[in-house]
Amino acid sequence: MASSFAFAVHPSFICSSVATRSSVSSPLPVLSCSNPLQGSLSTALQCQHFQTCSGCSHEWDLHQPPVLAEANDFFRSVGVSDFTFDSGNLWEWRCRAKLAVRGSSSNPSVGLYQEGTHTIVDIPYCRAHHPSINAAVDVLKRGITLFDIIPYDEDMGTGELRYVQMAVTTYDTSLPAAERYNKGKVQVTLVWNSNNEHSPSSAKLNTLSNFIWKNGGPNSKNHLIHSIWVNFQTSRNNVIFGNRWRHLLGEIDFWDRVGGVDICLAPSSFGQANTKAFNSLLQNLQKYVPYGASVADIYAGSGIIGLSLVATRKCRSVKCVENNKESRLSFEKSLGRLPRTVDSCISWHHADASIEPLYWLQGSDVVVADPPRKGLHPSMIAALQKLPSFKHQASNEWSRSMLKVKEERRPWVLRAREASVCVESKTIGEKSQLWPKTLLYISCGWKSFKEDCRMLLSDKAWHLEKAHAFNFFPGTDSIEVLAVFKICLQAWTSVNPWQQENSQEEETEDKCLAAGT
Ligand SMILES: C[S@@+](CC[C@H](N)C(=O)[O-])C[C@H]1O[C@@H](n2cnc3c(N)ncnc32)[C@H](O)[C@@H]1O
């Protein structure tokens, strides 16, 4: 139960907050706002699972997570006084959830761990979930009970169903635009405790998926399931997915639309959980990329950011670097839906960006880096710190010597350099002597971001020009940051007094000096 407060709900809040399409509409929990230190009910979580479920840590003021005050101070201290925050949707924002399945077939729990335990809390009325996720979980649980599907037992390693991933597409052009989000459809992935589709429990897997399809697919009275997949995983560790994925029912391709482009996401690829907030971030990010820029999209996943920039900023080239090979197919499919008018060099590399980071940075004037929560790899930071000294070294020969291309013999490094997917431009030639002037750092880990930011600013290599944050995870004390760094040239020019290339760079240099970075 949520809290010990007594309750009074403002009627307008009830209207705006009740799940719109779920057959599992939540009895709202009892809260009151008698404590003047608490925020308004209109921005409160009001979830009955709060405190038992580990998903949300904050119940009040969802529009301003506590870390925001610290972020504001931090950005001020590094010279950014106009830091902005976009608070977005406070409920029903989660379009992608991985939920553990535990308990028994007669009483299954589908949810998250209770804080600090290995107990799974059933969260049928989760306020963060898109309503279609809660509705799909409800169908799943009925199927588990009806067909005696055994939930996974972590201690014994037994059972059939371990996890379920639910991903919502909010892109159905047959619906009016205003209805698309609420009527989103779910790609369900069942994580099954067997080696493959030939195992003895496969009959039960098929029965369960047919039940879900019958009760949530296109011929049901509440069409909420887009497709059903299975992932086979027998490992005893706590890695959620195994390597074997199979499509079972519905459409294979899962399309959504963000950042002005159609994107296809396989269940095995990384996908942002908060589709609307991600879209806002992309629209903001686009403004910092000059038309015709060459972009390196590092930690690219299925290349959504890079493709969005190709389409909206008419980039000369975009190079995506990602170490999960599963994302390649999604990238290829999304690439196929770019407008025909796009004329750019576009490539996607299956590579570890921390190995030879300079190789990936070369040839671009804008770097987008969207690393996992732990932040940039030390080797990537070191490479970014070196960039000011490369700025005017335009010769390819010099670049090659810096990158030690001639000496490189390691087959896996040479393999990674070859693009897994590549589209040449019809008109644009290569311009590999470029080095980045702008770094757009997207971060979901505030702690690691601060450290990386300090490192980048510490030796005057970069200057922080702008910072924005987005409420990607309302109910938690996390923010997604978009930080705009510009290269500083004075460190380099003090030893190499070459002429500045253009006035924009002079301006950036002045700002670096003014900010004392
Ligand atoms: C926060 S996600 C961002 C994905 C993508 N930019 C998006 O928004 O969809 C981070 C990505 O970095 C990838 N990654 C992690 N370590 C990497 C490495 N050493 N080299 C390249 N990619 C890496 C992960 O597989 C994941 O797709």
UniProtKB/TrEMBL annotation:
Any one Gene Ontology MF annotation carried by this entry is: RNA methyltransferase activity
Keyword Transferase assigned: yes
Kindly identify the residues recorded as the active site: C444
What keywords were assigned to this record?
Answer: Methyltransferase, S-adenosyl-L-methionine, Transferase
**PROSITE patterns of this UniProt entry?**
SAM_MT_RNA_M5U (PS51687)
What is one GO biological process annotated to this record?
methylation
- The positions annotated for binding S-adenosyl-L-methionine are Q272, Y299, E322, D370
Supply the InterPro entries for this chain.
RNA_M5U_MTase, SAM-dependent_MTases_sf, U5_MeTrfase_fam
Q: Into which family does the record put it?
A: Belongs to the class I-like SAM-binding methyltransferase superfamily. RNA M5U methyltransferase family.
Its name, as the record gives it, is RNA methyltransferase
Give the originating organism.
Aristolochia fimbriata
